[in-house]
Amino acid sequence: MDTKLKKQLEIAACKIRLGAVEGVYHAKSGHPGGSLSAADIFSYLYFQELRVNPKNPKEPDRDRFVLSKGHTCPGLYAALALKGYFAEDELKKLRQIGAMLQGHPDMKGTPGIDMSTGSLGQGISAACGMALAGKMDRKDYRVYALLGDGELEEGQVWEASMFAGHHSLDNLCLIVDINGLQIDGPTAEVAGPEPIDEKFRAFGFDVQGIDGHDLDAIEKAFEHAKTVKGKPSVILAKTVKGKGVSYMENKAGWHGKAPNDEEYAVAVRELKQALAGLEAE
Prior knowledge:
Residues 13-266 form the Transketolase N-terminal domain. Its EC number is 2.2.1.1. The chain starts with a helix and ends with a helix. It has helices at 3-27, 32-37, 39-49, 73-83, 122-136, 155-166, 187-191, 196-202, 215-225, 261-280; strands spanning 64-67, 143-148, 172-178, 181-182, 185-186, 206-211, 233-238. A five-stranded parallel sheet has the order 1-2-3-7-6, with helices on both faces. It contains ten helices and seven strands. It has one domain (3-280): Rossmann fold (3-Layer(aba) Sandwich), CATH 3.40.50.
């Protein structure tokens, strides 16, 4: 990856983490852990991969993105704000009555949201429908969907995967954020989804495994996915839940909890220090 681009994406990812923390803190509720683990993926998607235009969010030929693990929308909202879909001040109004940003993505009220999600498993199904529609309409847009590893416990995920493989949806690219933790603890202990790679291969997917915080690896994976013909793609991204905030990292308790005043101050300080270091290089 070009050094300048990599630095830009690292800075964007850090700002996305800051925005997610800001939103959850002011809402006094929300899901920071999975938002932070996916920040590097959000950064690459919105500032390199997706063919989208914030000035025309409903452009018919745009690429589509579905956040299947909809509870991690604080990270997605931060990316959308940074991209210019709406003012960053909206992040501080997360989950407040009458505000734009709800606790789960709302395609009717939030610019840049292609599908309302929240019930786990449903987002991937909607993404499959979008991809099939693109095929039927002979459009060249691509469809991306981000799932969580805990979400793989939903049977609907595998019904959708069967559908994607059956219809050879090579315009579909799934990303699974494998941070190893869900609300009840380690995914391996709740209902272990492994071997994830073999499961997706059995459903006819091209499968790649990467470090979900390595932007070079993320770039290579997305570039490869665009070359795959005749089958859907999935990128299995190994990540750290709560990445970037020391006391949140690898802690299941930060799946769905807002920081208090002291914790918020620590998180902001750590992320701003990381941002300052990146901007100074």
